[in-house]
Write a structure and sequence with these properties.
Blueprint (H helix, E strand, L loop, with lengths): L5 E4 L4 E3 L10 H12 L5 E2 H8 L7 H19 L3 E4 L3 E4 L2 E2 L5 E4 L5 H8 L3 E4 L3 E2 L7 H16 L5 E2 L2 H6 L7 H8 L3 E10 L2 E10 L4 E11 L3 H30 L7 H14 L2 H17 L4 H16 L6 H18 L4 H13 L4 H14 L4 H13 L3 H14 L6 H14 L3 H14 L4 H13 L3 H14 L5 H4 L7 H13 L10
Amino acid sequence: MGGKTMMILIDQREVRDDDGRPVELRRRSFNLLMLLADNAGQVISKETLIDGNWPNVTASDESLARCISDIRGALGVKYRHNLRTFPGRGYLLEGTKTEAGNGVRLRCAEGAAESARGAEKPSLAVLPFADMTGDADQAYLALGIADDLIVTLSRIRWFYVIGRNSSFAVRKEDGDFRRIGRELGAHYVLAGTLRRDGRRLRLTARLVEAETCRQVWAGRFEGDLDDVFALQDRIARDVTLAIEPSLQTAEVEKARKKRTDDLGAYDLYLRSLPLFHAYTREGFAEAETLLRMALRHDPNYVDALAALADCVGRMALNGWRDDIEKAYAESCSLAERAVLADPEHPAALATAAWASAMFGEKFERASDLADRALALHPDTPAIRSYCGWVFVYTGQCQRAIEQFEAARRLSPLDPRSYFFLLGLAGARFFLKDFEATITLARRIIVESPAHIIAHRFLAAALALSGRKEDARIVLSRILELQPDYSLEHARRSRMGHDWMMTLWIEGLAQAGLPEHEAHL
């Protein structure tokens, strides 16, 4: 048969990519893929999949969804479309059975290979950690931590993790990262050492750009050996949380150095991120242009779809679009396209949940999407934050606070920390904790003086706490930033309960916001 294929070899219990390399999966996820492959072309119910993969064990839909997400991540952008979701029915694996019936061939959909090349995802190899304990019986720890890191990092969709068998087989004694990267086809290499001091385990790790041997990140982690498996899980989570932003920063810098006429969808997406994070009208407008260019390269690029949905929605929230309702509708449409392109993608789920609540008035769907995103990606700060906003606007303010606080713990130096603080300010406002709202809003404004939404919360909270003069001073700044803002405009906000809208309008009215736009 012409063309490359991914092969699922049922009898040998192997999965091989289109270059013949083994594909790594967690045991439960691997078993689930084998069950789907054995029944390729048939819709298998969730109940059948759960019973077949978790016999004599009570398993939840979330456990199944996590395995499905793992499988799609392992199949990659070129093949994940072969695993189809049938809402309310189950899942189907599309593929062609071999003549002997003991294997399944998966093919790229038309244009998928080009899309994968256009996305230009970076690749990362995780090497076994060098065991410095001197105890051969403890060597399993170094391998176990590297194994856990490969699985955990593989859940992040925007880069590719080299399989365990390849990473563990490469010669690494000389520490030649340039050679290791070349042999594995990896842009970045993660390596480190493991030391034991009594019942304490210390791990040092560093992330290196293979081509230049430049150190991108380094960190140190430690913990007690009382529960080895819990320690492995925690180290894998903590290292992943530390690595991802450093890796993204390195990729942004590489994209900035490329010639404008040599930019692909991935580069354009990366270039939009610092503009987005600057949170200015000009920055958002330029980010929007770059993201639309990225989607012209690849209309199904999930990260770009989700980012553009966010960008368009935020511009509307800040009053930076002429047709607010049209922008709200476009934000929802882009977010839904992202979910259709990849139903388990963290950014797609979280952005769709946020847009459904903020702009679509689909509060039940928003809550369902948020719950799904949190079940699949509980350790991603951005997911916690977007879902926190869903809970703010559906009136679940205490639950919202839990999400924003978790996001701050997971990423204390996040470049979008203002997003966490603003969410906390919003939740505290609707809990009528106006003093906390004032403190939080002022912190945001110190970091971002043109943040209109922070000014709105500050003005409303000051007015409702009896400080009318202070509120009017803040209101004058709001009208400098957005001269057409009015109570009529404020009522366009979507909120899950009438009492929330009543409180919001009351605060802004007491601050002196006019009913209608002032015509100059």
